[in-house]
What we know:
The complex is a heterodimer.
Chain A: E1 4-6, E2 10-12, E3 15-19, E4 28-34, E5 38-48, E6 51-56, E7 68-76, E8 78-80, E9 89-91, E10 108-110, E11 127-128, H1 133-138, E12 141-142, E13 149-151, H2 157-167, E14 178-187, H3 189-201, E15 208-214, H4 225-239, E16 243-249, H5 251-264, H6 278-286, E17 298-306, H7 315-323, E18 326-329, H8 332-336, E19 349-350, H9 353-356, H10 366-390, H11 397-414, H12 424-435, H13 448-465
Parallel strand pairs in A: 9-15, 13-17, 13-18, 14-15, 14-16, 16-17
Antiparallel strand pairs in A: 1-7, 2-3, 3-6, 4-5, 4-7, 5-6, 8-10, 11-12, 18-19
Helix pairs in contact in A: 10-11, 10-12, 11-12, 12-13
Chain B: E1 4-11, E2 14-18, E3 27-31, E4 36-43, E5 47-52, E6 64-71, E7 73-76, E8 84-85, H1 92-99, E9 118-122, E10 129-130, E11 135-140, E12 146-150, E13 157-162, E14 166-168, E15 175-178, E16 184-187, E17 191-194, E18 203-205, H2 216-221, E19 229-233, H3 240-250, E20 255-261, H4 265-277, E21 291-296, H5 302-321, E22 325-331, H6 333-346, H7 360-368, E23 372-375, E24 381-390, H8 400-408, E25 411-412, H9 417-421, E26 434-435, H10 438-448, H11 453-477, H12 484-501, H13 515-537, H14 542-547, H15 550-555, H16 557-560, H17 568-587
Parallel strand pairs in B: 8-21, 19-24, 19-25, 20-21, 20-22, 22-24
Antiparallel strand pairs in B: 1-2, 1-6, 2-5, 3-4, 3-6, 4-5, 7-17, 9-11, 9-14, 10-13, 11-12, 13-15, 15-16, 18-23, 23-24, 25-26
Helix pairs in contact in B: 5-6, 7-8, 11-12, 11-13, 12-13, 13-17
Amino acid sequence: MSIEYLGLSEINGPLIAxxxxxxxxxxxxxxxxxxxxxxxxxxxxxxxxxxAVIQVFQGTDDMSLNNTHTKLTGRPMEVALSEDxxxxxxxxxxxxxxxxxxxxxxxxxxxxxxxxxxxxxxxPRNYINTGISTIDCLTTLIRxxxxxxxxxxGLPHDQLAAQIVKQASLGENSDExxxxxxxxxxxxxxxxxxxxxxxxxxxxxxxxxxxLNLANDPVVERLITPKVALTAAEYLAFEKxxxxxxxxxxxxxxxxxxxxxxxxxxxxxxxxxYPGYLYSExxxxxERAGIVADSKGSVTQIPIxxxxxxxxxxxxxxxxxxxxxxxxVLDRSLYQKNVYPxxxxxxxxxxxxxxxxxxxxxxxxxxxxANQLFSSYARVGEARGLASVIGEDELSPIDxxxxxxxxxxxxxxxxxxxxxxxxxxxxxxxxxxLLSILPREELDRIDTKILNQYYKAAVxxxxxxE
Amino acid sequence: MNITGKIFGINGPIVYVAGNQxxxxxxxxxxxxERLVGEVIGLTKDRTTIQVFEETTGLKPGQEVYSxxxxxxxxxxxxxxxxxxxxxxxxxxxxxxxxxxxxxRGVSVESLNTSKLWDVHITVKPGDMIYGGxxxxxxxxxxxxxxxxxxxxxxxxxVTKVAADGKYTIHDTIVTIAESDGKVRELSLTQKxxxxxxxxxxxxxxxxxxxxxxxxxxxxLFPIAKGGTAAIPGGFGTGKTMTQHQLAKWSDADIIVYIxxxxxxxxxxxxxxxxSKLVDPRSGNPLLDRTTLIANTSNMPVAARExxxxxxxxxxxYYRDMGYHVAIMADSTSRWAEAxxxxxxxxxEMPAEEGFPAYLAxxxxxxxxxxxxxxxxxxxxxxxxxxxAVSPQGGDFSEPVTQNTKRFVRCFxxxxxxxxxxxxxxxxxxxxxxxxxxxDLTPWYISNVGSDFVECRNKVIAILTxxxxxxxxxxxxxxxxxxxxxxxxxxxxxxxxxxxxxxxAYHPSDTYVPLSKxxxxxxxxxxxxxxxxxxxxxxxxxxxxKEENVFEKIISxxxxxxxxxxNKFDDYKAMIDDFYNRVxxxxx
Lengths: 466, 588
């Protein structure tokens, strides 16, 4: 028989304090009944002797110090799971909002998850073919990786994420089951609708689980949304053997929510007002990607974050980059040049690609080709800088070639249609086509044998065309 | 005598106990009914503050806290090498056998296997007087390492009884001694040591020999000594972890302690998988047979992250005491500093710069000062070298962790974003990196590698510096208008950058390069420079020199000459002479 407490001792933003409680435990979930009907839930974030500080997920509107009944549940935040969640839509704390009723299941999981033992992980090695040249060739996505998209407001990160989802085939073993877990944190209605429409158009709806916390939904709920989504993803991947792609958008709203709650708790801020545990909190989410040895499934994460003021050194992208296995950075000036997807090549990176490409995976020349494209494209930047000072006409012949290479890279390689699905071989061949613009002695990152085989072929096919 | 207290309040990893129950500072305690491991970090008359090394979800006020009487310590005995532990020396493989793929709370496991029988050879006999540090037994721990069990530093006495050589577990008594007050004490292969206290030594030596890493930019340009300290700062994606992996694989230390402090889980898995497959080029044994891993990934509890650095260095000191050269890779010390900040924030301490606690600098210094080339208590010599990665916020080296680390390390390998963007690895920027060991190590290089080694090194650095000055001009007016001797400097600097400084970790013969080849490469490049300079001096234009592809050929020496084909360098010298004569005769 659980005790209900009547009344509260303090309300401050999303936090309330309750005195005289017995047996409250840290991180426990409590249920409130406001004025006898309205139900809310909250989480205990601090306990001192008989005083508990509780964070209310749905906001403290309508609550007064007298009209609220509080009941301790004795459990941490849990969510019911079964395979029926596929195709369903939930709110930010995992309650169904599609009118199809509750998920009935005996299986309940603590949304906080537990750290995956490094000994029980399997190192990710299988690439995912996204059909997008820049990603496949230069920042290859590996199954079980966490690869965020660093974007800015107004950039087409949603379209890019949707295109990845649509085109991400699972290679030859396509009979394996896959599913998408989509978590929206503080995004606009349009964005949620865009994703929903995309999933429907691509016929994937029955393989999608959506958790929506929209921009006007309670801020505190946002802190739980990704945890609920990842708990569902882990369940589907490691217990049901599915390959899961998790889209988390927008991580910036998640971090903002954390700052808001932290400041109302009166905590000591560290960088830019974010709490000192921002890194640990982000890590606890991102590290839930991966593959468990002896389990068939995998969790691959594509978190999306909008860099405040396009600043990659802002704490949110900065800390994210230190945890995730690379990043795909979108660039505003490329987008203004009408390049889609506007992926800024140089700062983008996939840390896991080195072990998932090359002979036996994609093609033997992949790594060298990617290195050379990066290195040559870096040189393009220098040549452009010089051209802006002394004028293009004054450039040395080799610098002029680099300008031509840069322009070709942007218009032929990076640019592609929103529905254009390029095969890996097509992408790699396009890369060699670009390199054939440069003289052979400039290609210093490629093994001589590979150069002999592929560079020559690319140059020959080019002269034939001419 | 067991003390207990009752939990009064909980805030994240910090737990308060009401009143003064007689807990000791830095004492290890068990918290709550699940007996989570914790440490006492603050005492006042009214309350005891405890940091808990596991998630505190579900703890309640009123639950008990139990004392253990001792500080947080590590168990030191055979079985450490080749193993992987969390931040407080709990073996992750045992935990996964016990609780599955995910780490649950309150798992109680022994640090080391207590039932395994080791082949023990006793090295003392009855009547021997033994002191702290005396080696009492030898155990073949792995194919590469002989474990030497020692008397704990604070124990001495006369041996009264020894067991016969044979198979024993780490807790079996192997030697019995009578202490000076007549008390009888039984010794086993095991000893315990508190992680926050440095293990004592006799004295500290000056650093006079390098830790050879096989990485050209480190060994030649910015060397580190055995017993030295180095920092690798760099923003994300600049290759800190990659550099640490390369050093862990190839450096000539006897033992590597790899601390993954608040980093990625997949990286630790990679080290585990790679190191059990890779073979040590010097001994032919698997690399894992000389490596121990401390893995406290970023999603594991924050207090254990703070402890992991100390656990790692204590293990390293223990092997140093046996007379081994140990190198620590700490990836990343910034995560450790941030763990300090996080805990400090929870304790509501007054923050100093950027929210870090004011004691950041003193914590960093006491960590790095535990490195050194030492004479141990038993007279043997060993060293602990520390190589710490630093992850500066926003890649900005002016932040507190980088700046304070700089004060206490003597090698600074600054990783550069623009080099990394161009996929130039290792992305160590030669202009703002430094090593204070160059002078200390000069005599060693001269007598062991070549009398002109340091001279060549200095010339190479001078050319690179000159290049950066010339590039300032090139940025404004283009390279075409430079005089030919300056064009030559740019060309040679390019050869040095691509052919020498840049090194391909995935190429079988380039991933590790012996010092002798590093010297030959430098000599060849400098020879090309001096010959070309003569040609330019005779007013041959640079464009003529570039018609020959000799520059490209020298760049690819790193791939074309295997590490055991040093005689091929004579051909290159002949090739340069040829080139000189050909240019001369064509344009005479």
